[in-house]
Design goal:
Layout lengths: L1 E5 L6 E4 L3 E3 L4 H4 L3 H4 L3 E2 L3 E4 L3 E11 L6 E10 L1 H10 L11 E4 L14 E5 L8 E4 L5 H8 L3 H13 L2
Parallel strand pairs: 3-7
Antiparallel strand pairs: 1-2, 4-5, 5-6, 6-7, 8-9, 9-10
Amino acid sequence: MQHAWTCACCGEQYSTLPLDFAADAPDYWYGLSAEERTSGVLTADLCTIAGEYHFIRGCLELPIHGRSERLVFGVWVSFSEASMRRAAELWDAEVIEDEPPRFGWLSTNVRPYPRSLELKAAVHFRAGGLRPLVELEPSDHPLAREQREGISMNRVQEIVATLMHRH
């Protein structure tokens, strides 16, 4: 997004504000040994560990007050085997109608928020090649609250500065 801002961490001035950050794998993947990873499958959108644990990548979006843009986190959510099969069936669908969301547990620790692993989530499948939308169950967790209520542009800048500098 074209937006002039000054980073509070480093003092640099920027003319664009990145609004999309993503995790390459579920957090649990990083806890596996190299040998354990050989029994798993990891693609850009799907992950299975030991043939038993399934994950799907989706978009957790935070509305920005007064803007049409959203701050988007590419996150992973655990899925049951049945939900994973249904995801495969719908993956390339041009139209998805009357499909209920699927339950999962957030499997990405979204920084700079407090521990977000295992927050309850609803995964909404979307047509047209879009990754699923991840909606957190309402709770007092700051990430769930900000997804529900939206965030200010100042808050966006604060989050982006933290992520850019990996504090």
